[in-house]
Amino acid sequence: MRLVLMGPPGAGKGTQGDRLAEWLEVPRLSTGDMLREARRQETELGRLAQAYMDAGELVPDDVILGLIEELLDDEVAQAGFVLDGFPRTVAQAEGLQRLLAARRDRLDVVLNLDVPDEEVVARLSGRRVCEACSAVTHVDVVGGVTDCAACGGRLVQRSDDRVETVRRRLDVYREQTAPVLAWYGSSDVPATDVDGTGSVEDVFVRLTRAVRVSRPV
């Protein structure tokens, strides 16, 4: 099963991508995780990504497609994958199609998590990350607590989770990523909208139902 999971930042793609990957018994491939790790390690790619991500902009297509090509060549992805956070532009969608065609593969399902902008802003601007162990929580859970419950490290707000940056990220999504849905709409694997509001379990049930409808597993 080769599945693309789309949706705005904060829609829950990471959480649901992990659950879908476990359910389908394939790896979750996240370009966002890879870029953040490169940034944390202060590699050349990380420094380049930092400037774009802090401004709420997308990392250039050629950089992302290079990462995806490496991921697709990895042995763990040969039986399928859940792609989380990619493609984000029409050029990336076309590039992914070319990469898969070169391997005589194709996508099976494209799912789009639909979440209102104001809920996205509330989710992301309230998110806090531990500097020491990278545990993620939310101010609705911890209130004014600034220490990580898991390790005692300091809880901080990521620069790309600030309200003004989140709103810019949503603008970028609408300008550059939403057209990808239209592109898939004219392809042989059209994107299916899935309501991304409600509990994690409710959203997961909707996603698995959409996968079964698109292609029984």
**H/E series, N to C?**
EHEHHHEHEHEEHEHEH
* SS content category: alpha/beta
Order of strands, main sheet, comes to 2-3-1-4-8
Number of helices: 9
Beta strand count: 8
Percent helix range: 40-55%
* Low-confidence residue ranges: none
In round numbers, the mean pLDDT is: 89
Specify Rg, calculated over alpha carbons: 17 Å
How would you describe the shape? globular
Tell me about this structure:
- There is one protein chain.
- The protein has 217 residues and is α/β, with parallel strands linked by helices.
- Helix content is 51%, strand content 15%.
- It is built from 9 helices and 8 strands.
- The protein has a 5-stranded parallel β-sheet.
- α1 (13-24) crosses α9 and α2 (31-40) crosses α3 (44-54).
List the helices and strands and how they pair.
Layout: E1 2-6, H1 13-24, E2 28-30, H2 31-40, H3 44-54, H4 61-73, E3 81-84, H5 90-102, E4 109-114, H6 117-125, E5 127-130, E6 136-138, H7 139-142, E7 155-156, H8 163-185, E8 191-195, H9 200-214
Parallel strand pairs: 1-3, 1-4, 2-3, 4-8
Antiparallel strand pairs: 5-6, 5-7
Notable characteristics:
15% strand; alpha/beta; 8 strands; 217 residues; 3-stranded antiparallel beta sheet
